[in-house]
Amino acid sequence: MKNNNETTWVSEFILLGLTNDHESQLILFAFFLVVYVITLLGNSLMVFTITLSSTLHSPMYFFLRILSIVDICFTSSTVPKLLLDFLSEVKRISFPGCVAQLYSFISFGGIECVLLAVMAGDRYVAICMPLRYTQMMSRNVCLILVAICWIIGLLNSLAHTVLTFRLPFCKSKSINHFFCDIPPLLALSCADTTVNEVVVYTAGGSVIVGSFLLTLLSYIFIVTAVLKIKTVSGRLKTFSTCASHLIVVTLFFGTGVFTYIRPTSTYSLDQDRVVPVLYGIMNPMLNPLIYSFMNKEVQGSLRKAICRRSQPDMSH
User: Which distant-in-sequence residues (6+ apart) come within 8 Å of 32 by Cβ?
Assistant: First the structure.
């Protein structure tokens, strides 16, 4: 690494990880391995169940299937490397590897962010405009909305990644985190990071806050419509279709806003290292569990799929 003002080239970074204690690392390895396996199995089962069940071929479940695919990619951007690092004395990551990890993590986080807003819009149309639902949420419209989610997520991440890695890193090559993220990388630069912080606030903030506001607006209309239903049972039945999505949204946006919509000067890994674990690792595991526990249609389709697999073949 050259340490001068003109140019600074780093061939690799050192990730400081979650802890330096050997016993704690082994415990955390076992914990995150279990979490990752549950995440892969839960989301894969959700994808297969929705794909194979004819009763789940509706826009809501189409978006839920995409959410499960995004969650698999989201958690896979950090956890395999994290598991490897728990077993390594020196937690190295190459410069290209760091670029790829940051880009994929921010991409899939952004895609999920916008997708959750789209899913809130789907619930709004279903509850507030039920007679026009089939027309407004046609297959082509759903495909276009998903494409928009991916385009926004990928372009937003590209802007952050390019601006982050054009900086000279001359303070240190040790990243005070368990993966390559924007705030700890900016802390390593000896250059002015004002432009980067502005982009985090404007581009990143627009994706997070914009998606959150659209979601909030959808739920304001949904609650207003639900309150107009005369019977309590009718209100509960209608709102139950939104309950699981509302929990997922609260978990995701709550932790995401806390992490990124703040000045970098207030960033402290000692305080905030648990937050990316929550929204980047725990949330993808919880999402299929929340939807399967709180949605009777998913439960029914899961039981049918399991029973179909467990029944012996009587054709011979």
Answer: 79, 82, 83, 86, 281
Q: What is the CATH number of domain 12-310?
A: 1.20.1070.10
- Burial of 213 per CB tally in 10 Å (0-12, 13-18, 19+): exposed
CA-CA distance, 174 to 185, in Å (whole number)?
9
Whole-angstrom Cα distance, residue 101 to residue 76? 10
Contacts with 229 (C-beta within 8 Å, 6 or more apart), sequence order:
235, 238
pLDDT digits (tens, 9 = 90+) for 251-302: 888 776 665 555 555 555 555 677 778 788 888 999 988 887 777 777 777 7
Residue 137, phi then psi, degrees to nearest 5: -110, 50
* Domain residue limits, the chain: 12-310
Greater confidence (230 vs 113) lies with 113
Residue among 116, 153, 79, 130 nearest 249 (CA): 116
Q: What is the CA radius of gyration of the chain?
A: 22
pLDDT at site 89:
86
Identify the burial level of 308 via C-beta atoms within 10 angstroms of its C-beta, where 0-12 means exposed, 13-18 middle and 19 or more buried: exposed
Helices 22-52 + 79-86 axis angle, to 10: 150
At 21 the three-state DSSP class reads coil
Render the burial of 122-160: b for 16+ CB within 10 Å, e for the rest. Answer: bbbbbbeeeeebeeebeeeebeebbeebbebbbebbebb
pLDDT of residue 233: 85
The pLDDT value given to residue 230: 85
